[in-house]
Write a structure and sequence with these properties.
Elements: E1 2-4, E2 7-13, E3 23-31, H1 36-39, E4 48-52, H2 59-69, E5 73-78, H3 82-94, E6 99-103, H4 109-123, E7 128-131, H5 146-173, E8 177-182, H6 195-215, E9 220-227, H7 244-250, H8 261-272, E10 283-286, H9 295-299, H10 301-307
Helix pairs in contact: 2-3, 2-8, 4-5, 5-6
């Protein structure tokens, strides 16, 4: 590859190297306005992010930390576990980043007023919102009380809506911004007792698309991430490798493992960065392949044997 100003000339064999043809003198000119030096600049330099649901050990904290490592200043929030929120801030500061903390319930407007005021007073603007907070009860679909229903949806769906309501005007004044909502695969597939959780996250996916459509021309992008099972600091100790139930559960994932908070933080980083400037209104599935296969593939031995390397057996050859 030869670089001349902002043009790259690439010699490639055959049809772009995919076929075993002799080397042809093919020239591909790639117009680029990005220099190699610019490519190593931190991806969120100059950004200010609010991350709701960021107690240390989970997706929100991992996202806040990842953002700070990429140059963003962050304001983090949780409604409980104040010591874990303080740990998030401490770890960011120990890594050389800047962070501020706000305790409060995301279902309460006053929490968002304080979050916005803190971001503006400390860092002068808001460019990014990540909403990770969620709350639910595990019961059959019609066994929830009205109080439980309202409490859960107030956090899971009302929180993101309030966050958008208070952050988007500030983003527009600054020329635009990015919203990243943490959803779940349980918005499209479900488990027993997950009706309330799935209802809230399904609504969140719809809200994401509406925001993207309503405010796109004002520089606002909105996207969601749908994780599968994520095991953070709190859950790792309970997952024994030799536990048959855990092995069966992991078998649901073609990648062979549960997700980590950092997996989702990396996806959020992309969606929050300028690299995703043409990406809006999507729900990005980050589930290790969980939703790729039918339930039958998980329980019928003839299917499971085809892809389990550790128990792979020869399959009958078909007549040619």
């Amino acid at each position: 590859i030869v670089k001349s100003k902002n043009k790259f000339t690439l010699s490639t064999p055959g049809r772009f190297g995919f076929l075993t043809e002799p080397m042809l003198n093919v020239q591909v000119i790639i117009e680029s306005t990005i220099t190699i030096k610019e490519r190593i600049v931190m991806r969120l330099e100059g950004k200010v992010a609010i991350v709701a649901g960021a107690a240390w050990g989970g997706i929100g904290a991992a996202t806040a930390y990842r953002f700070a490592c990429e140059g963003a200043k962050v304001v983090v929030n949780t409604r409980r576990r104040e010591e874990k929120l303080a740990e998030t801030v401490q770890r960011i500061e120990d890594a050389g980043g800047e962070a501020a903390a706000v305790m409060g319930d995301v279902a309460d407007e006053s929490t968002w007023q304080t979050l916005v005021e803190t971001a503006l007073s400390n860092y002068g603007k808001i460019t990014t919102l990540v909403h990770n907070a969620a709350h639910s009860y595990t019961k059959k679909a019609i066994e929830f009380t009205m109080e439980e229903w309202n409490e859960s949806l107030g956090v899971t769906l009302g929180g993101p809506w309030l966050g958008a309501k208070y952050c988007i005007p500030e983003m527009i004044q600054n020329g635009g911004g990015a919203l990243v909502f943490i959803s779940t695969v349980n918005a499209t597939i479900t488990n027993p007792g997950f009706g309330l959780y799935g209802a809230g996250k399904s609504g969140l996916n719809a809200l994401t698309r509406s925001i993207a459509l309503d405010y796109g021309r004002e520089g606002i992008r909105a996207n969601a991430i749908a994780p599968g099972q994520i095991v953070g600091e709190r859950g790792e100790a309970s997952l024994a490798e030799d536990d048959l139930e855990e092995q069966a559960s992991r078998d649901c994932y073609p990648v062979g493992r549960y997700g980590k908070p950092e997996d989702i933080a990396n996806a959020a980083l992309f969606l929050a960065s300028d690299e995703a400037d043409f990406v809006t209104g999507i729900v990005l599935t980050a589930d290790g392949g969980l939703t790729l296969q039918s339930p039958e593939a998980l329980v019928r031995p003839s299917f499971r044997l085809r892809w389990r390397d550790d128990i792979l057996v020869p399959q009958p050859k078909e007549d040619s």
